[in-house]
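User: Here's a protein and a ligand (MF3). What would the complex look like?
Assistant: Let me lay out the input and then the predicted complex.
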Amino acid sequence: MRVVGRFAAGLLRQVSKMIEPGLTTGAIDDFVAEETRKRGGISGPLGYPKGSAHPFPKHCCTSVNHVVCHGIPSPTHVLREGDIINVDVTPIIDGYHGDTSRTFIVGEADPEVRRLVDDTYESMRIGIAQVKPGGHVGDIGEAIQRFAEGRGHGVVRQFAGHGIGQIFHGPPTISHVGRRGDGERFVPGMTFTVEPMINMGDWRCQILGDHWTVVTVDHSLSAQFEHTVTVTEDGVEVLTLAEGDTFDLSLDAS
Ligand code: MF3
Ligand code: CO
Ligand code: CO
């Protein structure tokens, strides 16, 4: 999980350097596909879930502006100055999944947009910082909900973090809203994602006719960050960090 986590984070670091007005979401997908292939990995999203009537058709998810998650990359979708885009990658190496996403600002954006993106990162960070043996999954949801709603945002409820390893999505479900002490207890060695989707407006969302693209019902902007983490003997380790990356586990909201 460390090996694939580091590779997944490296993919996003490289994608971050590509983001500029004029880039297409299809070009991001092509890059992720090629880098994953060169590493000897495979793309978790491609054809997922197996046997479905509507398997995901691309190698990563690219979710722009009011798209909450699961946006489908397209060679005709051109990024514009001021857009926000979440890129979510899930390579598989030697059978293990590394799931991570970041929201990027294309060029310059309005202060309130930057505030949404920064608050969404902080929501994820605060959620991860809760994790330690003996705690409960509800501790993550409560911390995220308290922070994000306190900043005036909506926290998406229809989609959640998830257990991950040799399977892409498994138990436990990691809701981004909840109550401290509720739900499953953290045990060392558990691996799961924390991936809050935070809306500038209402938390409600709906799925478009392509069976994948999730949008906010009020068309407000939505941001997301995701890491894959593991519970350690005395806390938590973030697995989806690239070489040299650090992660702030302090509990005081910044
Ligand atoms: N990577 C997404 C997650 O964080 C799942 C994408 S499912 C796919 O769980 F089929 F769209 F790839
Ligand atoms: Co995930
Ligand atoms: Co993901």
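Summary: Helices lie at 2-18, 25-38, 111-129, 137-150.
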